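Collaboration report, partner site 2.

Our partner group contributed sequences for two proteins of shared interest, and the home lab folded both. The records are reproduced in the order in which they were received, starting with the first partner submission.
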Amino acid sequence: MSDLTNSESKSQSLKVAGETLPAKSQPTVLRCLIGSLISSAFAFGLYSLTMSIALSFASKPVHSANITVIKIGVAVRTLVVGMAALGTGVFGIAAVGLLLLGVQIMLQKLLKKPAV
């Protein structure tokens, strides 16, 4: 393991909080819209998966006389549907956030006063 206090280390130092990012890594309207489209595609796919899993579980009830088996089955089904729904929500919120970021950047560029 390398020594973290070694001054001859070739790793880059941490950025200062006030330092700006290089121009190539700044978010642009196009990047935000493309990211939003990709995220919404994932959200739609996960939504479709969630609905198909829920319908599959609803059409096949657990057949058992043992109450423990039924409770574990219900818990597992709830966890599976919940994880798919969580993924849908995360990607959906990311899509909306990226879309709103793109709108904010566009408005900032439109309302920016020209340099005199």
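Second partner submission, folded after the first:
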Amino acid sequence: MLFSSLEFIFVFLPIILIFYYIIPRKSKNYVLFIFSLLFYAWGGVSYTLILIFSIIINYILVKQIWKSTNYKKKWLITGLIFNITLIFIFKYLNFFIGNFNDVGLLINDNFKLLPEANIILPLGISFFTFQQMSLLWDVYRKPQRQKLKFLNTALYISFFPQLIAGPIVRYDDIINQIKNRTETISLITSGIQRFILGLFKKIILANTCASIADSIIDNDISDISTPLAWLGIISYAFQIYFDFSGYSDMAIGLGRMFGFRILENFNFPYISRSIKEFWRRWHISLSSWFRDYVYIPIGGNRNGPYKTYFNLFLVFVLTGFWHGATWSFIIWGIFHGLFLIIERLGFDKILKRLPKIVSWSYAMLVVLIGWVFFRIENISDAYNYTCKLFGGGPSSDVSFIHYLDRERLFVLILAAVSSSTIFYKVKDIALFYGKGKLNIPFVIIKDIILVIMLFSSVLYINSGSYNPFIYFRF
């Protein structure tokens, strides 16, 4: 079930809110857990059985780590192996089978191919397995904690707002809220507003940018001109940002409706002036997860520059591989890792001295080229598309007008503005003139805009347009 579907907005969400607020406090977590499983089961009952199995096994392992005195590390390793095996089977097995077959055929034309497994990727497996691995690590590192309860642990893993596409929530960040939280009118109101903002980002901004990007990138690359190639990848950059940040906004908003304060996952990444800054602003929960559970445990920057560069490189190979079982994702990760190493070698100091427009242009150029390999799975096609960005090969006579009508142009401009901090600066001005509180005209205008956002998003959904979240396949 999609957050951006009419079934969710007008059926599932109202029902769970009614149940949640009419039952006694002691039963609220049971309601959230049951409805979270129902939400996940909408995509397939077999998915839910995998999720429940994973929750039970991880809970048993966490309890063993918590209780054990001499075998904590063994239980931790067992838990990590279990989760890695789970994600390997469902997400990466066919990737390795395919590459094994390719290598075998290169060596011997008569090589007997291994059959690919008929496996359907469970929704959100990359997210809930990472949450469970962080739970294992945190309990191992900090055993002096209150007794773990199954319901609390299960709800932490399965809580439906962030179950399928994050943010990746840490146990320590949310467990106190699971045990004891306070729902307020102001928190619920801000949650509704944040949900509407995320819905608008996804339905209007991301989906419109997707229609532009798909119509260009999915064409024969030889028929694309350099200007159109730039339009295609810039549109995709807006698509993936508003698609994923829109989901995160909806997840954060939904959490607030039930009294939870889920941490932010994006902080205007497209205003970054370096790749290092970009990764402090993009998919914050994932980058911090790799920092705390991979980069630091393997040594971080503690063992000299060369080991630091190797650790950075390894982390971003894994970051790319986490996104999908294709070589293009690995290349995307390596590409970002190499530029992070270049910046650590001293280029970051140069960037700080350059004019902002120059350092920003550098960062966005790297990010956009990276998005080519993220979007196009075939490496040869991705390379050819990158060449098109810089004038390589024959060009088409098709003009921008073929791909941009007034609506699309307006959305692109709105996406560019929304990627900046302009709206927050307007809010700061309103707070300044309101002496610390939003003045009444600003509040009225804001509420009118939110109503328009909701109405236009629902109309667009009702038109029958369907475009699932990009990160659902990760």
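Feedback sent to the partner group on the second submission included the following. The CA atoms of residues 275 and 363 lie 6 Å apart. The chain is about 70% helix and 0% strand.
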